[in-house]
Specification:
- The structure holds two protein chains of two kinds.
- By secondary structure, chain A is mainly beta.
- In chain A, the strands form two sheets. In chain A, strands 2, 4, 5, 6, 9, 10 and 11 form a seven-stranded mixed β-sheet that branches. A four-stranded antiparallel β-sheet of chain A has the order 1-3-8-7, with no helix packed on it.
- In chain A, strand 7 and strand 8 form a beta hairpin.
- The radius of gyration of chain A is 13 Å and the shape is globular.
- By secondary structure, chain B is mostly beta strands.
- Chain B is built from no helices and twelve strands.
- Classes of the chains: A mainly beta, B mainly beta.
C-alpha cells in the first residue's frame, strides 16, 4: 500500500536553530499538507500545498515557517529560529482532491527544541 | 468555521465488547467528508474509515463502522469485538470539499481491558 514517508523520525535541536522536516508524499497525490500535534493535544492544520504553491495556511503558519517542493518527490517544512513551543509532532499528509479515502498521513517527525 | 466535538476524553471497555466513540460536527456546507483516525502510543496516524456527506449507506471497514446521522450531525465510530490492540487515541476529523484541510476533534483515549 502506498505510504507517506517522513524523515527524520526524531529531531532534537537547540532553540534558535533552523530545522528542515522532510516528506515524500504518495506519488500520484496532488495535495500536500503539514499538520502539528503538541504533546497531548489535538492535531492542528498548518498548511496545504497544491500546484506548487500554498493553497491555504493557518494562523500558526507565520513567517517562521516555509514549505517547499524542491523536486518531483520531496516536500519540506522549514522552521526558522526554533522556539521551545515549536516542540511537537509534525505530520506530513497527502491526498487526491475530491477523494475521501486516500488522505494519508506519514508517521510523523517528533521535534524537540531544547 | 468547522468544529468537531468528541465528548469522551477517555473510555475503558472490556475486551470483545463493542464500543462506540462519539463525534459531532458543525458545518453549513452541503459537501463534506468525515474521517476517523487511530493514533497508537507510537504516534502515527492510521486511517480507519471515511464517510462522504452524500453517501447513502454507513461506511464499514472490517470491525469498524461509522454510524452517520446527517440530521444530527453525528458520525460515531463503532468498533465491534474490541481487541487489546485497539487501545489508542481516536480522532474524528472533517474535510470540506474544495478545501482539502482536515479539522480534528480533541480525541478519545480508548483503553481495552483484558
Amino acid at each position: 500500500e502506498p505510504e507517506v514517508t517522513q524523515t527524520p523520525s526524531h529531531q532534537v535541536t537547540q532553540m534558535g536553530q533552523e530545522v528542515i522536516l522532510r516528506c515524500v508524499p504518495i506519488s500520484n497525490h496532488l495535495y500536500f499538507y503539514w499538520y502539528r500535534q503538541i504533546l497531548g493535544q489535538k492535531v492542528e492544520f498548518l498548511v496545504s500545498f497544491y500546484n506548487n504553491e500554498i493553497s491555504e495556511k493557518s494562523e500558526i503558519f507565520d513567517d517562521q515557517f516555509s514549505v517547499e517542493r524542491p523536486d518531483g518527490s520531496n516536500f519540506t517544512l522549514k522552521i526558522r529560529s526554533t522556539k521551545l513551543e515549536d516542540s511537537a509532532m509534525y505530520f506530513c499528509a497527502s491526498s487526491d482532491p475530491g477523494q475521501g479515502v486516500g488522505y494519508t498521513f506519514g508517521s510523523g517527525t517528533r521535534l524537540t527544541v531544547v | 468555521a468547522q468544529k468537531i466535538t468528541q465528548t469522551q476524553p477517555g473510555m475503558f471497555v472490556q475486551e470483545k465488547e463493542a464500543v462506540t466513540l462519539d463525534c459531532t460536527y458543525d458545518t453549513s456546507d452541503p459537501s463534506y467528508g468525515l474521517f476517523w483516525y487511530k493514533q497508537p502510543s507510537s504516534g502515527e496516524m492510521i486511517f480507519l474509515i471515511y464517510q462522504g456527506s452524500y453517501d447513502q449507506q454507513n461506511a464499514t471497514e472490517g470491525r469498524y463502522s461509522l454510524n452517520f446521522q446527517k440530521a444530527r450531525k453525528s458520525a460515531n465510530l463503532v468498533i465491534s469485538a474490541s481487541q487489546l490492540g485497539d487501545s489508542a487515541m481516536y480522532f474524528c476529523a472533517q474535510k470540506k470539499f474544495g478545501n482539502e484541510k482536515l479539522t480534528f476533534g480533541t480525541g478519545t483515549r480508548l483503553t481495552i481491558i483484558p
